[in-house]
Specification:
The protein is of the alpha/beta class. The protein contains ten helices and 14 strands. The chain has an eight-stranded mixed sheet with strand order 5-4-3-2-1-12-13-14. The chain starts with 7 loop residues before the first strand and ends with a helix.
Length: 268
């Protein structure tokens, strides 16, 4: 057998490592375990903030470093502590929000607060995805801005995710970053923040370089990570924008796409 060609395997969570029921298949677990036994580190790189990620990492028995919040948080799962955390300038975010609403009309809002126990606040009209992830509803707009935030989530009553993302970028692209992270999930982030930002910080801690990294993802917010890594693999269910820049396309998350690639690499 040839040696495993990468020292770092970076995987997104939703739509990539996780199946639709938020589980990780035995086949994918085994493939990741074989890659780590061959000398590679596995890093989860997710748009979810730490409070929405921790239970998955614990279930995986994951004790290494994870990149959360679109790169804003570098989290040590084994020690249950934040190593780095970047927050959104609330004054700048408020200005960006006003400009976007002036362009496209009123938006439904949610926000992720900073910290290990940071709550996700959801405002009136924001459509919540079914599932176990906790959130706190709010009515008073002042509550949204009352504590440090890692990101804002925006939804529009009629525009598609792609249309809202394009309109927001065209309006406030020089103030903040706008990313689409999943169905119904368009986010306002600090300017210059991306999954590549957090992954590069985490990799540096591990002594691993971009040229030694393979990355897996499914949505446009994974594009910077693919740009940073030596090899980017889009899932079969990936958004067209990510597929367009991927080095290869594997099977879907429901069909163990990560395992398909890792097994091939492990076999040489």
């Amino acid at each position: 057998m040839s040696p495993f060609p990468y020292r770092l395997v970076a995987t997104d969570l939703d739509g990539t490592l996780l199946r639709s029921d938020e589980s990780v298949s035995d086949r994918t677990r085994d493939a990741l375990a074989a890659a780590t036994a061959a000398g590679a580190a596995h890093i989860v790189v997710t748009g979810r903030a730490v409070p929405w990620t921790r239970h998955i990492l614990d279930d995986l028995g994951y004790e290494g470093i994870a990149v959360c919040g679109q790169g804003a948080q570098v989290y040590h799962a084994g020690e249950h502590r934040l190593l780095t955390s970047l927050t959104l300038d609330r004054q700048l975010a408020g200005l960006a929000l006003s400009k976007i609403e002036a362009e496209v009309g009123p938006l439904a809002l949610a926000a992720s607060r900073d910290g290990l126990e940071g709550e996700v606040l959801m405002g009136p009209g924001y459509l919540v995805h079914e599932g176990p992830l906790p959130y706190v509803p709010y009515e008073d707009p002042a509550e949204l801005w009352s504590a440090p935030l890692t990101k804002l989530y925006i939804q529009h009553p009629t525009l598609t995710d792609d249309e809202l993302t394009r309109a927001a970028r065209a309006t406030v692209g020089g103030l903040v970053d706008i990313v689409m992270a999943g169905p119904g999930i368009v986010e306002i982030l600090p300017l210059g923040l991306s999954k590549a930002t957090g992954l590069s910080l985490a990799a540096r801690r591990l002594g691993v370089k971009a040229a030694e990294t393979i990355a897996f993802g499914d949505m446009p917010n994974d594009i910077p990570m693919f740009g940073w890594a030596a090899h980017g693999v889009a899932m079969g269910n990936a958004h067209a924008e990510l597929r367009a820049v991927a080095d290869e396309v594997t099977a879907s998350n429901e069909e163990d796409g990560i395992a398909v690639v890792l097994e091939r690499l492990l076999a040489g």
